[in-house]
Write a structure and sequence with these properties.
The protein has about 425 residues and is α/β, with parallel strands linked by helices. Helices cover about 30% and strands about 25% of the residues. Helix 5 runs parallel beside helix 6 and helix 8 runs parallel beside helix 10. The structure holds uridine-diphosphate-N-acetylglucosamine. The site of uridine-diphosphate-N-acetylglucosamine has 21 residues, from helix 1, helix 5 and helix 6.
């Protein structure tokens, strides 16, 4: 397994291009299963999760062609099986996103249960409950979800909890259902809206996009000739590099991004002392060489502060001026980075859903590893401000969700290298 070695102490500066959003690409590639016509999805990030999704669709018989500009052409006319096998689903929970489209278009789906996950139990009960209410027959056998439906029926769904992939699965299922579906308490994440806009481009009738009530008028079929859809830029990748720059007292400009999807994060960076300037598709952050102030954050569904930025802000607080409390309300077990940061000299106390962080003068480089994507990224950030070398192990987690992280950080002046095992 590859490792990253970071030698801390460099102030980040320069310009960076943000990649397409992982969390848009995954549902949109799954949503392509609904299309009767070949379509092209562009601005696809270079990520391991994309490779996994392509393998998943490929095994179903879907034809996929990717070009050097990361556009994927998807043709579902040769699809011949409706299964998402365990060995793929266990490496990427988001594989569950094929359930809604397969069921809606082909009336059958055989999808492995995602099983345990490093960041809490993460069940899929709300996905299954919604599909059942739309008339699907669902059994769970041998670790697989077996779902059947002649044609799904539109209905009124009130989501018990806000779930991003749950909303996406039900939204995709509803596009081909008979009649109207209303999804109340829907997730409002920009990636949900991106999926809905994509589905509408294929002929779906979705309204209420961006709100917590989605209304979907079912249609008989989806597809559009010559459709090329570019996915949204990645707000979490954007936020991660901005925090990296802020921690090092740096000054960077990120382009090909969407500042209006990052309001809560930018507010917190300002509170930490960053000067922030934005245009339509760029953000500039300038710390003027200062250390950040500690900032308290509380994670919650969009538009509140994202749980996917929690670990990075924890990293920033480890070396900030003052004391702050990080409260995680979305996932139950999302503080695995804390133990590793403590090994680097961070002063963090965990009290149930809170991490109380007291800034220290300096972290010390150490060998560390993490068990999920954002936690691993936060350890890279910690390494940027640590004295000496930090070796981050198990970086396959990072490769799942960050496009060429070491090249992008090196471009900003970080001393970082990948060592193959
Ligand atoms: C998505 C994102 C992930 C992000 C998360 C929260 C993708 C591919 N992944 O994950 O990066 O961290 O949203 O913003 O988009 N829950 C249930 N029952 C269900 C479904 C969810 O109880 O059927 C709970 C979960 O355990 C969790 C909460 O709902 O506590 C939110 O999870 P959810 O929004 O579903 O996360 P994902 O969609 O898996």
């Amino acid at each position: 397994m590859d490792k990253l070695i970071i030698t801390g102490g460099k102030q980040l500066s320069g310009e960076l291009r943000i990649s397409g959003a992982k969390n848009s690409a995954l549902p949109i590639l799954a949503g392509a299963l609904l299309s009767e016509t070949p379509i092209i999805v562009g601005n696809i990030p270079h990520l391991h999760d994309i490779t996994t999704t392509m393998e998943l669709l490929g095994r179903m018989g879907v034809q996929l062609v990717i070009d050097e500009k990361m556009n994927i052409e998807i043709d579902t006319s040769t699809i011949n099986n409706f299964e998402a096998p365990y060995e793929l689903v266990r490496t990427m929970r988001a594989s569950i996103l094929v359930l809604g489209p397969l069921l809606a278009r082909f009336g059958s789906a055989h999808v492995s249960l995602p099983g345990g996950c490093a960041i809490g139990t993460r069940p899929v009960d709300i996905h299954l409950d919604g599909l059942t209410k739309m008339g699907a027959e669902i059994k769970v056998e041998g670790g697989y979800i077996l779902a059947q439906a002649k044609r799904l029926k539109g209905t009124h769904l009130v989501m018990e909890k806000i779930t991003v992939t749950g909303t996406e699965n039900l939204l995709m299922a509803a596009t081909l259902a008979e009649g109207k579906t209303v999804i109340e308490n829907a997730a409002k994440e920009p990636e949900v809206s991106d999926l809905a806009n994509f589905l509408n481009k294929m002929g779906a009738k979705i309204s209420g996009i961006g709100t917590d009530i989605l209304e979907i008028e079912g249609v008989d079929q989806l597809g559009a000739k010559d459709l090329h859809y570019d996915i949204l830029p990645d707000r979490i990748e954007t936020g991660t590099y901005l925090v990296a720059a802020a921690m090092t007292g740096g000054n960077i400009r990120v382009k090909n991004t969407r500042p209006n999807t990052l309001d809560a994060v930018l507010e917190k960076l300002k509170e930490a002392g960053a000067e922030i300037f934005t245009g339509d598709d760029w953000i500039k952050l300038d710390m003027k060489g200062k250390k950040p102030q500690a900032v308290s954050v509380r994670t919650a569904p969009y538009p509140a502060f994202p749980t996917d930025m929690q670990a990075q802000f924890t990293a920033m607080n480890t070396i900030a001026e003052g004391v702050a409390v990080i409260t995680e309300t979305v996932f139950e077990n999302r503080f695995m980075h804390v133990q590793e940061m403590q090994r680097m000299g961070a002063d963090i106390q965990l009290e149930s859903h809170n991490a109380i962080c007291k800034g220290v003068d300096k972290l010390a480089g150490a060998p560390v590893m993490a068990t999920d994507l954002r936690a691993s990224a936060s350890l890279v950030l910690a390494g940027l401000v640590a004295e000496g070398d930090t070796m981050v192990d198990r970086i396959y987690h990072i490769d799942r969700g960050y496009d060429h992280i070491e090249e992008k950080l090196a471009q900003l002046g970080a001393k970082i290298r990948r060592v193959p095992n």
